[in-house]
Amino acid sequence: MKRNKILKSLVESRPYEKWNSMLELISNTEIDDMTRIQKNMAFCLRYDSEVHNGGHIQYFTNFKATYLHETLIALVEIGAINQMEILQSFTNLNNDLKLEDISTKEEFISRVLVGYDYTFKDEKKEELFEQYILKWDNKYYECNPSVIDLLEKYFQENEQEFIEIIDD
Predict the structure, then answer these.
(1) Which residues are bridge partners to 163 per DSSP?
(2) Which residues form the DNA mimic protein DMP19 C-terminal domain (predicted)?
(3) How many CB atoms lie within 10 A of CB 163?
């Protein structure tokens, strides 16, 4: 298991450096080299960051639905049930839209959410799609506790998975 080392004196004078060290570890470690707990942190941080910087469409556009299933599981494992349900709602959206030229959930995710260049043949369905995006993005922003709040708690509970505090 890869962990970042951080000096005890630094932690004592600037406790936030533990979080910064964890972020550095997550940013510089390949997913395949992470523990399950580290992966949970990485998936949830990436998801939350993308949604807060451009909504769910930005998340799907930038991450191409890579690790979508793992992100859903990670959200549950950190206690972000509401956020997981919101993300899951996006993947099931074609059940409501019933786009005739899309037959599977995977195709919907690939063409409409990830590509975000799908041409709607029905203007009402396009409006409905845009309304869903706005509704679920807003629901996400209103979630309490937030993903970051839950990740801070998760980090405190699993600090030893990310950092090793060493004597000076």
Answers:
(1) 4
(2) 32-158
(3) 21
Alpha helices, DSSP H, located in 3-143: 8-13, 17-28, 36-52, 55-63, 68-78, 81-91, 94-97, 105-108, 123-142
C-alpha 26/C-alpha 20 separation (Å) is 10
- Owner of token pair 């801070």: 152
Q: Specify the DSSP class assigned to residue 114.
A: I
Of 45, 10, 8, nearest in space to 26 by CA? 45
Task: Give the 3-state secondary structure of residue 98.
Answer: coil
**How far apart (Å, rounded) are the C-alpha atoms in residues 124 and 100?**
14
Strands 4-7 and 163-166: parallel
Q: Which of 72, 38, 36, 41 is nearest to 150 (CA)?
A: 41
Q: What is the pLDDT of residues 6-63, one digit of tens each?
A: 999 999 999 999 999 999 999 999 999 999 999 999 999 999 999 999 999 999 989 8
Residue 93 burial (CB count, 10 A): 19
Cα–Cα distance, 139 to 155 (Å, whole number): 25
HSE-CB of 161 using CA atoms within 13 angstroms = 17
